[in-house]
Amino acid sequence: MLRLVFRLIGFLCLAVAFAALIVDGTRSIAAGTPAILPLGGTVSALAPDLFVRLHTGIATHAPLLWDPVLVTLLLLPAWLVIGVLGIVLVALTRRPRPKIGYSRR
Question: Which residue pairs, CB below 8 angstroms and at least 24 apart, start in 58-64?
Fold first, then answer.
């Protein structure tokens, strides 16, 4: 049951990543130059209060986690981060391949 939930979340992440890629591509074509929205811009546009609370909480309790790790992650394109998360979730929830040459009894 838990595998199904994580697999569903993985496919949902892949769908959101594809939509974000389409939006970035459309904006880039309309502008004539690459217009890629980073993950931090997406999160701050969708939930500004959550982004501010997340920043203050992590920056005060674990500043080494915020500056090198999360700042780098938030500067990456949103479709890339969400797509990689979706691929990892789908790959982890695959059924194991049957072993060839071993008896199942």
Answer: none
Stated length of the chain: 105
CB 6 within 8 A of CB 92: yes
- Give the distance, in angstroms, between the CA of residue 44 and the centroid of all CA atoms in the same chain: 15
Query: In this structure, what is the dihedral angle of CA atoms 89, 90, 91, 95, given to the nearest 10 degrees?
Result: 120
pLDDT per residue of the chain (105 residues) written in tens, 0 to 9: 899 999 999 999 999 999 999 999 999 999 999 999 999 898 888 888 988 898 888 888 888 888 888 889 999 999 999 999 999 999 999 988 777 776 666
Q: What are phi and psi of 38, to 5 degrees?
A: -75, 165
